[in-house]
Design a protein that fits this description.
The protein has 10 helices and 10 strands. The protein is of the alpha/beta class. It has a 5-stranded mixed β-sheet with strand order 3-2-1-4-5, sandwiched between helices. The protein is globular. It binds 5'-O-[(R)-(carboxyoxy)(hydroxy)phosphoryl]adenosine.
């Protein structure tokens, strides 16, 4: 079955063609340069750029896969969560294509794409597994029981991990998007330079909170400025990153032990972070847990994961009605 995947939930316009589980093409139009001067995503601009990019991106994905639109059997498009204006562009485009070609469409929850993105690489995890999904919009822990069966175990009560990276980068004057900038700075910094707070919340809680950490970094930076001290950017980035990584790793391992699960998977933009992967690999080995991380190109938003999740959803539940609408909050749970 040839599946065309379409993703436009935030600031990346993406299309991919899959033959069942095999990726034939994966095309991405990234808007980072559009939003860089604002230090964050401007929703109105994101929607306009999606409108310009969607047709060329889909055409490129079909051409790279060496298939015609008439060959496509199923369209899988991100239905939510995300920015409503952005989602509407990709999802309406997908519904129109499906209508014109008289082929089925399935709406995909973006979180399901991230939970399953690890399957796009060589190593495939076995179900059930714990999935930590960390991006600019979410920090959530799921129990994945099947390709289409996910249980929400915990989520952020305020900022997402990627959002914290982006905001800290902005306060330190680093380039957008903040995750890669902070991570590059941190590579040569001392993670013990400042002991920033870790928000563990209530005992055994699998929820996250990163707004206190972000405020702690801001207070530290302001204190240093008041003392006219030079900001040790590498050390501040490394210390901040260490605080985020420790909480993400330890809560994921707690989730695995609490639910008696021996496989752990990560996904989402922040899962590209080298230090996060290192600490996960070490801690999982210590605790006898099998650890899987997606290939870097499948960590951030992409349409291959949407096509993959859509294919499995369609195989289980069939197509959905063309009168479905987009949504801003994940429906997984
Ligand atoms: O999944 P994604 O592409 O988009 C959504 O937010 O849905 O994730 C983007 C987020 C941004 O906040 C970005 O700063 C963060 O992922 N990110 C990273 C790294 N690469 C991207 N955060 C930490 N370390 C990285 N290497």
């Amino acid at each position: 079955m040839l599946v065309l995947g379409i993703e436009s939930s935030c600031d990346d316009t993406a299309a991919a063609v899959l033959n069942n589980n095999q990726i034939l093409s994966n095309v991405l139009n990234c808007q980072d340069s559009v939003h860089a001067e604002f230090g964050g995503i401007v929703p109105e601009l994101a929607s306009r750029k999606h409108l310009q990019a969607i047709n060329p991106v889909v055409e490129k994905a079909l051409a790279r896969a060496d298939v015609q639109l008439s060959d496509i059997d199923l369209i899988a498009a991100t239905q939510g969560p995300g920015l409503i204006g952005s989602l509407l562009v990709g999802f309406s485009y997908a519904k129109a294509l499906a209508h014109v070609r008289a082929i089925p469409i399935t709406g995909v929850d973006h979180m399901a794409g991230h939970i399953l993105s690890v399957f796009l690489g060589e190593e495939k995890p076995a179900f059930p597994y714990i999935a930590l999904i960390v991006s600019g919009g979410t920090s959530s822990l799921f129990l994945a029981e099947e390709f289409h069966q996910f249980r929400l175990l915990g989520r952020t009560r305020d900022d997402a991990a990627g959002e914290a990276f982006d905001k800290v980068a902005k306060m330190l004057g680093l380039a957008y998007p903040g995750g890669p900038s902070v991570s590059a700075m941190a590579a040569t910094g001392n993670p013990c330079h400042v002991r920033f707070p870790r928000a563990w919340l209530e005992e055994k809680s699998l929820d996250f909170s990163f707004s206190g950490l972000k405020t702690a970094v801001l207070s530290y930076v302001n204190q240093q400025k008041m003392k006219n001290a030079t900001l040790q950017l590498h050390d501040i980035c490394a210390s901040f990153q260490e605080a985020v990584v420790e909480v993400l790793v330890e809560k994921s391992i707690l989730a695995a032990h609490t639910h008696h699960i021996s496989t752990l998977v990560i996904g989402g933009g922040v899962s590209a972070n080298t230090r996060l992967r290192e600490v996960f690999a070490r801690r999982c080995q210590e605790d006898g847990i099998t650890f899987h991380a997606p290939e870097p190109q499948y960590c951030t938003d992409n349409a291959a994961m949407i096509a993959f999740a859509g294919y499995h959803k369609f195989c289980k539940f069939g197509a959905h009605g063309r009168d479905e609408d987009v949504y801003s909050r994940s429906q997984l749970g």
